[in-house]
């Protein structure tokens, strides 16, 4: 921490770091234009030579930018262009995103304060100040979330006969059925806990669903305490569908919270239940595996740490909005939380569990229609994938184009007697996925299968441990990469004997080897048997599985060794071309941009006159639109039906465009602390294709949010008849049909 006190630092922080306040009205409109930003004016008044590109006023706060991304996801629930069940899904996704934000980002800031390890980011903002602003903005977002649910989504669903029936309006038949359901399915497994000296407050796991019950009277032992805790068993569904014979048509659902609330008195016979209030506690869920204490067993250390994940320090309390203040204060004290950590909820405390509606309600008319991903004819022919890839490189964009060639390539390799070895990195895949099945089959068929599994893929650690065990049982060699660097690169290397030669076939991607995600995330897949790229991938695997000095690669950019420096070189080259009067252009599409040297290089390129377009889905700490610094930089975020996940780096390169696709975002962790690769497109048609697809995003006027220099995002508004959606264009162009 700096020698300055926290208070002194806070006084110097720029008010422009505060994110905009969301419009209180429930209408989907562009975020209103903000008044002139005093920070921007102060910076623009300086002459370029006086500008320090490390000035905190040139950077947005990382965590507040992250929160702004969650706000844009929430606004999708207001977009009437989405079918109503998809709008409900966006509410669920927002809830899940906020959970992770508190579990990881807020928990991290609190830990800094708790252990006196405060660290200001490039924006210069102290963690205590950041936590205060997060609380202010998060409370507004949560209030908006429940207003959207209660005032718009649930009424809209009711108009199409999907009803969430509150306990206050159950008819006699429904009340009788619910009572029987409680008796048969809930009461036998629920365990109410009265609080007294012999029954201390239970240790509640992270994000579990609970009730605090206020009681009056004495029990059979003469005890009179007044409070009890009722944990809702995780085995119980949070939504229950009522049978048709107790309803008047349509799909009718009740919340588990309503069922328990209505019958809370049965849990405490002879006592008077004065109140029953649902609540949920969020804890720090970030795993901290100390690399110095791992010894020789990363998997064992991770298994041990996973056991404690559910009981980290408290970071947030969500509770029913009608809970009395004295009970709330008691819970805050119990969990060592402050008022700013309290979120009063007007509805179910965990909206992400509403995703169950999609399984309980068979209403395809209320969701996006299915589509068939496209597939290049030669990949679909019966000649086999090895033959097709030997003739040319293939570039696929999921989900608009099929992910099946990636699975089929591994499946074909598993059966092909000419294939002698398979190597692959896995980050989020699943122990029983088609990819895992193909690798197991290959190992059992005698292939040399080596898999680099990143055990520390957040919230997929347990699944990855199970995957590692399954592959090892099949005879595959499993390694866990490099202890201090997560393996995030997406690579498959297949070695095939062809005559007297060994040929390397390669798949490289921007996304995970997960068939389900490939239907929801936009990602590129690249398949080739180019010798230089095959040699490079082989060398990267050598580093991952063995021990060696840095190995030189010909085509790939490789983090943490060459990727960041080469990106900086290519940005600087565009700046030099612009200064010479040559045409220049940079387009970068990533999930996040926070790496300070990368941001500063983009500022310098903008100052030199380079036109720069950044398509940043989530976090962006760069401040665009500042005269003399970033006036040539435009930043937009695309939020739509599919999660934007492609990472593309495009440089005009004096009329000889260079395009790199990558697993890496523009973040410090990706460029400096992970194993990542970026691979070049060497075919002119593929380069031109990616440029065209980038232009689709740059001209999107329906799902594009434009970042302003004050930190606000404005939703693009098309003129009548001029609607343009990048995702819809790609769907119509690349998919087989959109029936």
Automatic annotation (TrEMBL):
What is the catalytic activity of this protein?
[phosphate](n) + ATP = [phosphate](n+1) + ADP
Active-site residue list? 488
Looking at the record's lineage, which domain of life comes first? Answer: Bacteria
- Polyphosphate kinase N-terminal domain mapped to chain residues: 59-164
Can you give the residue ranges of the Polyphosphate kinase C-terminal domain?
A: 385-549, 556-727
Q: Which CDD domains match?
A: PLDc_PaPPK1_C2_like
Keyword Ribonucleoprotein attached: no
First-tier enzyme category under EC: transferase
Extract the InterPro entries matched here. Answer: PP_kinase, PP_kinase_C_1, PP_kinase_middle, PP_kinase_middle_dom_sf, PPK_C_dom2, PPK_N_dom, PPK_N_dom_sf
The protein's job, in short, is:
Catalyzes the reversible transfer of the terminal phosphate of ATP to form a long-chain polyphosphate (polyP).
Which protein, by its recorded name, is this?
Answer: Polyphosphate kinase
Organism field:
Marinomonas profundimaris
